[in-house]
Amino acid sequence: MQPLVLRSAIIAALGGLLFGFDTAVISGTTSDLTEVFGLSGFALGFTVATALIGTVVGAAYAGLGKPADRFGRKPVLIVIGVLYVVSALGSALATDWVVFMVFRFIGGLGVGAATSVAPIYNAEVAPPRHRGRLVGLFQFNITVGILLAYLSNFAILSLFPEDTAWRWMFGAEALPALVFALLVFLVPESPRWLMAVGRDEEAREVIDQLTADEEEARVQREEIKEALETEGDSAKVPFFTSGHRKVILLAFAIAAFNQLGGINAVLYYAPTIFESAGLGESAAFLNSAGVGLVNLLATILALTLIDRVGRRFLMLVCSAGYVLTLGLLTVLFFAYEGNFTGVTSGLVVASIMLFVGVHAFGQGAVIWVFIAEIFPNAIRARGQSFGALTHWTFAAAISWSFPAIAGNLGGGVAFLIFLLGGVAMTFWTIKVMPETKGIPLEEMEETLDLAGSAAMKAG
């Protein structure tokens, strides 16, 4: 692999690290935000969900408005870095609730755009034989960013006064975000984009730098040219048709189940959940860092196994883990909320850790791979955007409603709702989800009958 390929992919994938950091950093601030801004449970949920609403808008604009197609991948990556910087500093210095939410929304725009643009950039600068690993850097870095956010929150809590620590937690993101924005200036523009806009000579120069020899460069140029010609025809293919119903429902289901089990609520409110289970503030933050570490390690394990044991196996393990851990959490909170002891507090911590681990091993690793595989070539890009929008919409709804439900009805009710989502996912995985391991993309639709009987009738 050419050094420029690896350097460019690592720099672009830092957008995923900032994505993970930005989404998890708020977990350490919810108690302070409630006190400083006088928030109810409903208002706190909306405050947390504000960034996720921004993520939905950012993903929708990046997918439908296609700024990366108009201006290039590199300029958009720089803008994403700037959005992260502005959000971090603005959130840290916010003087009132509305101003705070505006800057969190801006950060969400960066997250949503990053989920669309950074993986695309890595896919386009990577030679085919290295593409899978380099695109996977983005997902890996998300889990690293989540862990760093938890560790940063724990360190800041120990170093800064309690009344200002939450501001430093948000502000800590500004430095890596600035570094990311500056590093993007050192990477080349995507050769695929250069060819798409007719800058063939510049594209040739970049491809020569990214490839090991002239033969590899020739193959990459031909591959890009063929893909661009195919996309020209694909743009005319409608998305929401009866022939695509089955595959659209599969994408919708896995994206919805990804959130209905409550993973984002746990990640965003981990310290609060641990404190409600009887842990002190410092212990709650430390165990939250443990959640981030489990998330990272389980993701690494899943990525090493996903092409060997298959997508359904990981999802079946995840489903069983959901039912076990969410069932235990439901029982613990119904029985002991407000009266946790050392043993029952430890069971809550262990259950949360295991829940995050099985999610990362199953849903976290499978969702984006599965969605990217099942759509036909002609609508794959739009299918990926549809899956992302479904995911982030459910993430916003769950994160918004969790504090109000837990505060008014109790943690037992909240985890019972998540348990029902886990049970539904289990039935879907067993009865509906197809296995896509080892099936070439070009044969996926025919092999799994993803077009369904409606398309056959239409034909």
Summed up:
This protein is an all-alpha fold and 459 residues long. Helices cover 83% and strands 0% of the residues.
Topology:
Elements: H1 3-25, H2 30-37, H3 41-65, H4 67-71, H5 73-93, H6 97-125, H7 131-159, H8 165-171, H9 174-183, H10 191-196, H11 200-210, H12 214-234, H13 245-260, H14 263-276, H15 281-309, H16 311-336, H17 342-374, H18 380-409, H19 411-431, H20 441-448, H21 452-458
Helix pairs in contact: 1-5, 1-6, 1-7, 1-9, 3-6, 3-18, 5-6, 5-8, 5-9, 6-7, 7-8, 7-15, 11-12, 13-17, 13-18, 13-19, 14-15, 14-17, 15-16, 15-17, 16-17, 16-19, 17-18, 18-19
Structure explained in plain terms:
By secondary structure, the chain is mostly helical. The longest helix has 33 residues, at 342-374. The chain contains 21 helices and no strands. Helix 1 (3-25) crosses helix 7. 83% of the residues lie in helices and 0% in strands. The chain has helices at residues 3-25, 30-37, 41-65, 67-71, 73-93, 97-125, 131-159, 165-171, 174-183, 191-196, 200-210, 214-234, 245-260, 263-276, 281-309, 311-336, 342-374, 380-409, 411-431, 441-448, 452-458.
